[in-house]
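Hey all, sorry for the wall of text incoming. These are the two entities for the joint prediction.
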Amino acid sequence: MTFLARRGVAALGLLWLVLTLTFALLHAAPGDAADLLVAPDAPPDAALQLRRELGLDESLAQQYGRWLSNLLRGDLGESFRRREPVTRVLAEALPVSLWLGVTSLALTFIVGVAVGALQASRKDRPTDRLLTGLTTAIYAAPSYWLALSAVALFTYGTSRLGAPAWLRLPAFGLTSPASEATGLAILPDLLRHSVLPIVVMAAVGAAGIARYARTALLDLRRSEWVRTARAKGLGPRRVMFRHLLANALPPLVVLLMLALPGVVAGSVFVESIFAWPGMGRVMLEAIGARDYPVVMGATVAYAGIVVLANAASDVLLHVVDPRRR
Amino acid sequence: MTRTERWAGGLLAVLVLGTILVPLVARKDPLAIDDVLRSRLVGPFSTDEAGQFHLLGTDRFGRDLFVRMMLAGRLSLAIGLVGSAVAGVLGVAVGAIAGWWRGAFDRVAMAVSDAMLAIPRLILLLLCAALWRPGTVTVMVVLAATGWMGVARLVRAEVLGARERPWADAARAVGTPPLRLLVRHVLPNAVGPALVATTLGVGNAILLESGLAFLGLGVQPPHPSWGNMIAGGRDLIVTAPWVAIAPGLALVLTVLGCTLLGDAWRDRLAGEGPTTLADRA
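and here's what came out:
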């Protein structure tokens, strides 16, 4: 319990630091919201009046206090462009990004660990070399470029080559625009639309995890207890599953935490290419429209997700590794 | 040199030489647009109607993709190298000061680095690109400003460990001034890990730079960058896939070279942990 309490306080402290940093960045940048919102031909005192309305004429400390206390009450301000509360804009986009992030992270983890374990058990043989080349190349490729290539291949390529219909995948939006299904009936359509984005995101992540899992498992395999296990007659499969993977779990949990920012950031590109109305697209549109409250809100939300996941993985590590208790 | 080092080093050397030489010997200005209708979207390894051969084809304005790709490489490589070199130097300085003198600076620097590591780097880059004017210099500054934390933590840990070693006591006992002890004896121990982290950071920086350019928040057209070239081929991906695929391959090869070289150097140092994951575009 003390561990959980300490971890919670640390997470809150980190969150406060992130919020302060975001505030500092916004106010270090040239110009303010009033410069942006006032028409160029407006009378000179229009900007002054707007600054007073928005509270931009107060001292920096006062603005910081107000911003932070509003934030604590769940008020992230109002979007300049959409004239709605930022929290509502983000709440609409969050489920889309969470669906993309959570499914691709799960797939990333399963495929990555499986590939890494396969490589470790076939060290320096052709399978290992081939997979090393493949994972290194995919890890070096930008996700948006992989996404574009996948779109070309699975929309145009498959229909031109006369591939079966299930291989011709949609590459735009969450559901088909013509679909009038509601409720659970949209699920098959949603899943079909999810295949390409999720696979592209998982491919990049899984390549990284596989590289890490391979090294971690090979390091562990040199341990003396592995030699003991083999010496007492256990087969290679049992050693791999019961002994090696069980011991590699804690570092892999840490890795899951390290992979999260990449997944979150990768969703910006994937959402932009596949036209998914998630957080990444909201942030990009807000940047294009100079909609600062939304940009700030999205940054805070992203950081919140990372801090939360870090704390959760620490707790998880506590659970999977009895030595830490 | 191991085989990996030779291959990765050779690959990077060819790329660097190509980016320097190819635009110099090109017959036509890679930024100039002239007879668009006769030369646009020529496929790879073919000749346009004016009789000009194009190794990788042309884009929608009839500009030679190979020459543009090499010109873009100059900018991408320069931004990646300068951005991560500055980040590396900044990281060594912050890490050394924080680890050697401790105190308030240490606490503030580590808190700031914790906070910055909690925001995904791409989001931090997007935020800065939104607040300042997008462009080459902004991208370089922002890459440096968001890339120092890893190196700073590595160097700080090395310095903290080294100052307690017996040889550090010995050096103090013979009267070595503290600053000389730090620069001549303690820091050289930290240079290896810092160099590896920085080399691996170059590939990352190039990917992030290209990602920003792809989104229109980095290097601005008409200056070519691999990212904005891929963006230019985005809506042609079905009719003229080579426009987006060629710069992507150049990007993959460059990042591959940096990753392999960084990995090989880390293996040389041994005792370092397995690959850590960083944000990728």
